[in-house]
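--- STAGE predict ---
source: upstream dedup step, 1 unique chain passed
mode: sequence only
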Amino acid sequence: MTFANLKGNFRKPETWRILKWLLGLHRERQPKHPATGVPVPFVHNDGQALRLATQDTLTWIGQASFLVQLGGKNALIDPVMSAKLAWVRRNVPPGLDWPAMPKIDLVLITHSHRDHMDAATLKRLGPDPVYVVPQGLGKWFRRAGMRHIVEMVWWQQLEIEGVNVTFVPAEHWSRRKLSDVNTSWWGGFVLERGGRRVYHSGDSGWFDGFEMIGERCGEIHAAMLPIGAYAPRWFMARQHIAPDEAVRAFLALKAQQFVAMHWGTFKLSDEPLDEPPRLLRAAWEQAGLPESRLNVPAIGETLLLENLAGKTTPARQREPLLLFADRVSR
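--- STAGE serialize ---
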């Protein structure tokens, strides 16, 4: 069985397009930028408060990896703790190291690409959590020895470990090896517990599904949206939104708070690793949105959802959201 996007018009990047991009045979060619050693905001997070699990929080671990705490439940979304993915090395270490991690109840995987589904990390997490995965990925997790696996289809809603989980569409594709293109689904997750609702988009190009998600899933208090891996646009637009499109997606979702992700960690595309937040802030200002609704966390930073919900204080007064240690660049 193979899967398709809502539009039904994107399968995967064709080989000739990949070669054209890698060889720089196009008008959007950029000078090469460093893949590691690029300073991005980083926080040493010792995990002490997270292990108490007394507050609803979002902690950015890097790339699309988040620890989400809702009502005392700990969920990892797209956890990637490895130092490298194939030949791509990590620019900064994970925002939480293993000793800082609380006991995990749920692990949610948006799709099978290796910067979202890392085999080494999943095997170290072990068989005890409930693994929530797109339809078609259950076989991989069973072979890896996981005991509790839930496969989901788009718009399916389940209560898992006390968390209301909805698997929602994205405009993307899936593959882990040459022979399994689009044999598993891809998407995002809406999680709700105790009246707080958060959304993680996974990877996605722009599509009308953002508006559908906002309409069908209810008010979203915090939307974790990707802002990196967008250049060149002729190649990346069908699979990754750019910062201005992330703002457009936020507006379509009618979410309360924007939480940026998917930048600064692995260099997977042509733009400089530290460029996405600059373009995001420019697009945010152009849209006339209040700065108090924009969150660009440091890797390792924990945001308190109770502070984000209905927050009206200016961004410069948000230092209490930084719970642990000092912010540094690495």
